[in-house]
Amino acid sequence: MSVLVITGTGTEVGKTITTAAAAAAAVAAGRSVAVLKPAQTGVRPDERGDADEVVRLAGPVAARELARYPEPLAPGTAARRAGLAPVRPKEVAEAAAELATAYDLVLVEGAGGLLVRFDDEGGTLADAARLLSAPVLVVAAAGLGTLNTTELTAHELRARGLDFAGVVIGSWPMSPDLASRCNLADLPAVAGAPLLGAVPAGAGALPPADFRKAAASWLAPRLGGTWDAEAFAARETRQT
């Protein structure tokens, strides 16, 4: 795949770290990578954004933002309140397509969930993915409550005729509780799509060199890694 759209089941589920892991695995495999952040919210002009964090962790990756808004709100709301032009799905698709002519892999990281609005007309990341005919990777939480939001996201992807690549758990706890362990089987079942990885909690705090070395072990082969869902589930659900 030359363009992969990465969304989440909500905010703070590990999209940026998952994006960085996918970028690092691709770079380690000798691929050129660009990350596109259509709308960065909640940061000042002089602060580092999500795309900058991907570069810090993954290494030699090109990064591009289309717009930046100061308040930590949905992009459409943040743009309106700041009196700035919104980002529209067509602009996202055009930027990603342009990057794809120069890089082997383009990772498009959304803001929040799949249907967070970019503009007052209701444009979303899902619309950009449709224009790109690009697969969508969903980053989900590990524990209680994740099944509902994951199934809703999966339902919407299919209703829109989008290619649902699979699910990555964006922050797998060091000591998973019962719900998290059960979700290793239940997440792919409710999503109707494979579990393609589990990024360990705190991975973003690793030194970049360690992050890059380990990234492929957190992701399945479809994402350029070596992670095996069955082996991981067997290990994590083993009773002690």
Describe the structure.
Helices cover 40% and strands 22% of the residues. With 240 residues, the chain is α/β, with parallel strands linked by helices. Helix 2 links the parallel strand 2 and strand 3. Strands 3-2-4-1-5-6-7 form a seven-stranded parallel sheet, sandwiched between helices. The radius of gyration is 17 Å and the shape is globular. It has nine helices and seven strands, in the order βαβαβααβαβαβαβαα. The longest helix is centred in the N-terminal third of the chain and has 14 residues, at 15-28. The mean pLDDT is 96. Helix 1 runs parallel beside helix 2 (50-58) and helix 6 (146-159) runs parallel beside helix 7 (178-191).
Specify the overall morphology.
globular
Q: What order do the helices and strands follow?
A: EHEHEHHEHEHEHEHH
Strand pairing plus helix content: what structural class?
alpha/beta
Terminal CA distance reads: 40 Å
Question: Which descriptors apply to this entry?
Answer:
240 residues; alpha/beta; 7-stranded parallel β-sheet; 9 helices; 7 strands; 40% helix
Short description:
The protein is of the alpha/beta class.
Question: What's the structural blueprint in terms of helices and strands?
Answer:
Layout: E1 3-8, H1 15-28, E2 33-41, H2 50-58, E3 62-69, H3 75-82, H4 89-100, E4 105-113, H5 125-132, E5 136-140, H6 146-159, E6 164-172, H7 178-191, E7 195-200, H8 208-214, H9 229-237
Parallel strand pairs: 1-4, 1-5, 2-3, 2-4, 5-6, 6-7
